[in-house]
Design brief:
Blueprint (H helix, E strand, L loop, with lengths): L4 E2 L9 H10 L18 H18 L5 E6 L2 H13 L5 E6 L2 H10 L4 E7 L23 E4 L1 E2 L4 E2 L11 E4 L16 E5 L10 E6 L16 H6 L9 H16 L2 H22 L3 E2 L11 E6 L5 H10 L2 E2 L10 E4 L6 H18 L1
Parallel strand pairs: 1-13, 3-4, 3-5, 5-8, 8-9
Antiparallel strand pairs: 2-10, 6-7, 9-10, 11-12, 12-14
Helix pairs in contact: 1-6, 2-6, 3-4, 7-9
The chain binds pyridoxal-5'-phosphate (PLP).
Length: 360
C-alpha cells in the first residue's frame, strides 16, 4: 500500500495512525461485536465515545467550564446563519471584517438577519493583507464581532486575537483550529467544520460561552438553536456518530504528539520552510503580506502560469496530490494541516526545486 502526500484544503489528510486505528476497530469496536457506525447514538458505548472526544478536546484547548462544546452537522456554512439567529438577541447590528472568500460568505448570510457593520475590508489588496487595526470601525452596540481566523482560500491568517472590548468575539476557525494553542476565554464563540483539522466531513464543532445561550430568535430552526443542542448533549437528533468517533481519535492522536504546543512548533516550522523556499526563488511567489501568512494554507504562483498544468500533472505523478489553487484564485495551494507531516513539506520543496531547475 502506498499513501501519497495529500495537500487538499478539505476534506483533508487524516493522520495515518488514526485511519489504522479506525480500520482495526471497524468491524468490532473494543470487543462489542459491532462497528461504531452501527451503534445507537444513545447506547452506553456511543455516549462514552462522545464524552471522551469532548473531554479530550476540552483538555487540548483548555476550554473553560463556562463554555459548551457542541458537535453539530451542516458544516461551518450553517453557522453563518446560526450565529446571527442565536446571538443577535434584541440587537440589530453585528460587526464583520472582510478578509476573503469565507468572510464574504459569512457576511452575505448575516445580512439576511441584521445590519452588518463592515469593520474593515482587504478587498483593495485583493485579500493579501489584514486591514490595519487602527482603521477598524468597531461598533460598541454590535451583538458580536465576527472574523475568519484563517482564510483557507487566500492563505491569510490572524496571528493575534483581535481586541474588541466587551463585544463577544466570534471566530470561524475551520482551517486553523488545533494548529496551536488558543485562549478560548477571549471568545464568545468559536466554530469549525471538521474536515480540515479535526476529522472527516459531516461534523461541525461550536464552542460557545454559556451567557450567549438562550438568546435565539423564535424563528431559529430547532436544529440550529444552541440552547436546544446544549440541553440535549448535541443529540437532539441523530448526530454524525462516526465522524464524532473519528474526531475523537484525532484528538487522542494530537495528545500523543504532545498537544497543541507541540503541534504549533511543527506547524510553524513546516510553514516557515515552505515560505522561505518560495521567497528565495524567482520562479515561485506567494502574494500574502508576511505578517499575515497562514500556517495552514499556502497559495503560490509560478512565474509562468502556462506551466501550471504541467506542474500539477508532474506533482501528481510524484505522489503530491491536490496542489491546485481554489478555482476563484487559480495558481497552486499547499494545505499543510496537522496531519500533513514535515516529510510531505520536504518532498514538496524537493519537487518544486527540481521543477524550477527543469523549467525556470
Ligand atoms: C471550509 C471552510 C468553510 C466551509 O465549511 P463547510 O463545512 O463546507 O460549510 C467555512 N469557513 C472556512 C474558513 C473554511 O475553511
Amino acid at each position: 500500500m502506498a499513501r501519497i502526500f495529500n495537500f487538499c484544503a478539505g476534506p483533508a489528510a487524516l493522520p495515518e495512525a488514526v485511519l489504522q486505528k479506525a480500520q482495526a476497530e471497524l468491524l468490532d469496536w473494543r470487543g462489542k461485536g459491532l462497528s461504531v457506525m452501527e451503534m445507537s447514538h444513545r447506547s452506553a458505548e456511543m455516549v462514552s465515545i462522545a464524552e471522551q472526544a469532548e473531554a479530550d478536546l476540552r483538555e487540548l484547548l483548555a476550554i473553560p467550564n463556562n463554555y459548551k462544546v457542541l458537535f453539530l452537522q451542516g458544516g461551518a456554512s450553517s453557522q453563518f446563519s446560526a450565529i446571527p439567529l442565536n446571538l443577535l438577541g434584541d440587537k440589530t447590528t453585528a460587526d464583520y471584517i472582510n478578509t476573503g472568500q469565507w468572510s464574504k460568505k459569512a457576511i452575505a448570510e448575516a445580512k439576511r438577519y441584521c445590519d452588518v457593520n463592515l469593520v474593515g475590508t482587504a478587498e483593495d489588496t485583493n485579500f493579501s493583507t489584514i486591514p490595519a487595526v487602527d482603521g477598524w470601525s468597531v461598533n460598541s452596540e454590535a451583538a458580536y464581532f465576527h472574523y475568519t481566523a484563517n482564510e483557507t482560500i487566500g492563505g491569510v491568517e490572524f496571528h493575534d486575537i483581535p481586541a474588541v472590548g466587551d463585544v463577544p468575539l466570534v471566530s470561524d476557525m475551520s482551517s486553523t483550529i488545533l494548529s496551536r494553542p488558543v485562549d478560548v476565554s477571549k471568545f464568545g464563540l468559536i466554530y469549525a467544520g471538521a474536515q480540515k483539522n479535526i476529522g472527516p466531513a459531516g461534523l461541525t464543532i461550536v464552542i460557545v460561552r454559556d451567557d450567549l445561550l438562550g438568546l435565539a430568535r423564535d424563528v431559529t430552526p430547532t436544529m440550529l438553536n444552541y440552547q436546544v443542542q446544549a440541553d440535549n448533549g448535541s443529540m437532539y437528533n441523530t448526530p454524525p456518530t462516526y465522524a464524532w468517533y473519528l474526531a475523537g481519535l484525532v484528538f487522542e492522536w494530537i495528545k500523543e504528539q504532545g498537544g497543541l504546543s507541540a503541534m504549533a512548533e511543527i506547524n510553524q516550522r513546516k510553514a516557515a520552510k515552505l515560505y522561505s523556499f518560495i521567497d528565495a526563488s524567482a520562479f515561485y511567489a506567494n502574494p500574502v503580506e508576511e505578517v499575515s501568512r497562514s500556517w495552514m494554507n499556502i497559495p503560490f504562483t509560478l512565474a509562468n502560469s502556462e506551466l501550471d498544468k504541467q506542474f500539477l500533472k508532474e506533482a501528481d505523478e510524484s505522489g503530491l496530490l491536490n496542489l491546485k489553487g481554489h478555482r476563484s484564485v487559480g495558481g497552486m495551494r499547499a494545505s499543510i494541516y496537522n496531519a500533513v507531516g514535515e516529510d510531505a513539506v520536504d518532498a514538496l520543496i524537493d519537487f518544486m526545486q527540481d521543477f524550477e531547475k527543469r523549467n525556470g
